[in-house]
Amino acid sequence: MTITCSDGTDQITSSYKVDISDAVPVLTNFAGTSGPLGDLSPVGTSVHQFTVTDQDDAISCSINAQESAKFGINKLDTATGAQRFDGMTIATLDYDSATSYTITVTCTDAINPVTSSRTINLADDKPVFSGLPATLSPARNDGFQTATLLCTFSVTDANDQSISTCLIQAPMDSFFNLVPGTAPTFLRSWVKASVTLYAASSLSS
Ligand SMILES: [Ca+2]
Ligand SMILES: [Ca+2]
Ligand SMILES: [Ca+2]
Fold it and tell me: How many angstroms does the Cα of residue 152 sit away from the middle of ligand 3?
């Protein structure tokens, strides 16, 4: 700017410069740890919400290259000032492949980037039974048995390779056994041949 002063006769001028630097956005609540997050959580599950503040610029955020295949950022506000973001999953997860991810977010007002990191811990979700009734119906006759299929059931877990360890606990394993079915996750419960069942007490396998 140029400043002019005068004593009524003589006029003098001088100029000086005021540098204006852009205020850096402030990312306050991203660092830390989230989870454990079940590895069967659906795509789009929110992991962490955070806020970036810039008084006059709209902020955009991105996640570092490798982890951006699994996690994304959705902007909840479009305004300037305190702007909220939601970090979420954008792909399926599997505890057997990775037990945690450390994601680094970069947020910028298009001039000054700021970064912060957060660790997302995963947990393996349990498999689930289906088709296994609480009580076999109709009841089996007691006495000497021939090998007989009792029921077919399945144990499924969307991202585990196979359910390899189903067993009937002792002492009922002397009366009953499990046989894998056609698919790796399908199992059949049988009463064993040549065993004798007694009606005095119901057996549970
Ligand atoms: Ca700014
Ligand atoms: Ca898993
Ligand atoms: Ca699992």
Answer: 21
